[in-house]
Every structure is written in structure tokens, then in C-alpha cells.
Design a protein that fits this description.
252 residues; 8 helices; 10 strands; globular; Patatin-like phospholipase family protein; Acyl_Trfase/lysoPLipase; lipid metabolism; hydrolase activity
């Protein structure tokens, strides 16, 4: 008999591929999302799941579309990366284009770039909200929705459990940004990532306490947020870790 649970999916760039592996492991145990709250990369995966796709179908779409960053050299003031490939994949494959029409409820967290506050989207057009939630400042242009600039939701809460509190029980939180041991020899990108992780970690620890079950696959620490070419390894890391976790719980 299938069991329905509320899920929270974090951001994490390419490590967001692991969400599909985690959800796949749960589906093997007949545990499926009844609602998802997500941000950044997690919101991309969540949109497809809430749209009625299976994890296997989403995995195939991600592989075929070669989802990742498309380089658009603009200028440093505006941001020099684009989410064009992500936008194209969403437009091409999503069956529903508004939050209200999705088969499963979805909450997408973005950060208001004008005042720094978290904004939760759960109505209106779906794709702009997902792109806004995935827009890392300095690397991407902010996404304007109704005249307000929005950026990555991870900055105001990388595990956005808030929309589920008081409405759903037994929340399952999935965070794909484990903090790895400090490496003094790390380069610029590694140090930039570490700085970002440390800046957003405190709110994540608080959100974690609101989750009945928390998953943070340790092996994801060896992947960078821009390792989009390592889809299979990232997916498998999430899958294997969660399978072992669920098997251990069953044995207990």
C-alpha cells in the first residue's frame, strides 16, 4: 500500500540530481510525495515530480536535455551565466504551467533580492518561480516577477520547510550540501562554495529540526555545484545512500 509523505528538497546546483536518487529509493519502498516544498535545484526536480512524472522519467529528461548551465558571456554587472537550458527543458516537458494545475501541491522558495526576505510561490506561473529560485546572485541575472527581482531561495532558507508546518506531518527533508572537511589547498571555486555553504547552513540546521526524517548523503561532498557532467554518479550517490538508510531503519 503506497504511503504519502511531505518532502522538502534543498538547492545544491548539480548535486540536485541526487534528489532523484533519493526519491527513487523511497518509491522502491512505496513511499511517495504528497506535497513538495523546494528551492533552487530541488525545485527543478520537484516541478517534474509534482507534474506527475516518475523519477525514472525525470532522470531520462535530465539526461536527454543535458541540463546544466549554458554560458552567456554578458558582463560582470549583469551576470554571465544563463539558465536557458533549464527553461527550455521546463517549457518543452512540463504538462502543467501553473501551480494550481499541478497534480501535487508544490511550494517554491526564492529570495526577494530587494529586501532579502524569503518568498514562497504556490500560485500563478510555474516556470518563472523555478528560474527565480535557481538564480545564484553574481552568476545569474535576477529574475523579475511582478516587478520584484528574485534570486536563489537557498540564501534565505536552503531547506524551506516553512510552508509545510502546521499542515503536514512526518516531513522528510533532503539536503544535498554536506559540509566537507576544510581543504587549505582548495581553489577559488571550492572556497566560494564553502563560503556559501557556511553562510546558509545555520537556517538549514534549524529547518532540519522541523523534519521527522532528514537525509544528507555524505558522498555528495566530493561533487561541486557545477559538476553537471557527473549526473549518473550524483544520482547514484543519492540512491545508494538512501537505500542503505531505509534498509537499516527497516531492520531496526
Amino acid at each position: 500500500m503506497p504511503v504519502l509523505r511531505p518532502f522538502v528538497l534543498s538547492g545544491g546546483g548539480a548535486r540536485g540530481y541526487a534528489h532523484l536518487g533519493v526519491l527513487k529509493a523511497f518509491s522502491e519502498r512505496q513511499i511517495f510525495p504528497e506535497v513538495i516544498s523546494a528551492t533552487s535545484a530541488g525545485s527543478i526536480a520537484a516541478a517534474f515530480i509534482c507534474d506527475g512524472f516518475s523519477t525514472d522519467e525525470v532522470r531520462e529528461i535530465f539526461q536527454q536535455q543535458k541540463l546544466g548551465l549554458s554560458m552567456e558571456w554578458k558582463n560582470w554587472r549583469a551576470g554571465f551565466l544563463s539558465l536557458k537550458k533549464v527553461e527550455e527543458a521546463l517549457k518543452k516537458n512540463l504538462r502543467h504551467t501553473t501551480f494550481e494545475s499541478l497534480p501535487l501541491p508544490l511550494y517554491v522558495a526564492a529570495t526577494n533580492f530587494a529586501n532579502g526576505e524569503q518568498t514562497i510561490f504556490n500560485s500563478g506561473p510555474l516556470i518563472p518561480a523555478i528560474l527565480a529560485a535557481s538564480t545564484i546572485p553574481m552568476l545569474f541575472r535576477p529574475v523579475e516577477i511582478n516587478g520584484v527581482p528574485y534570486v536563489d531561495g537557498g540564501l534565505s532558507g536552503n531547506l524551506p520547510v516553512e510552508p509545510l508546518l502546521g499542515k503536514y506531518a512526518h516531513v522528510i527533508g533532503v539536503h544535498v550540501n554536506p559540509l566537507v572537511p576544510y581543504n587549505p589547498a582548495g581553489g577559488f571555486l571550492a572556497n566560494m562554495e564553502r563560503t556559501l555553504h557556511m553562510a546558509i547552513r545555520e537556517p538549514v540546521l534549524k529547518s532540519r529540526q522541523q523534519c521527522e526524517f532528514f537525509i544528507e548523503p555524505e558522498g555528495l561532498g566530493k561533487f561541486g555545484m557545477f559538476d553537471f557532467s557527473k549526473f549518473d554518479a550524483i544520482y547514484t550517490t543519492g540512491l545508494d545512500y538512501t537505500r542503505k538508510l531505509l534498509a537499516a531503519m527497516t531492520n531496526d
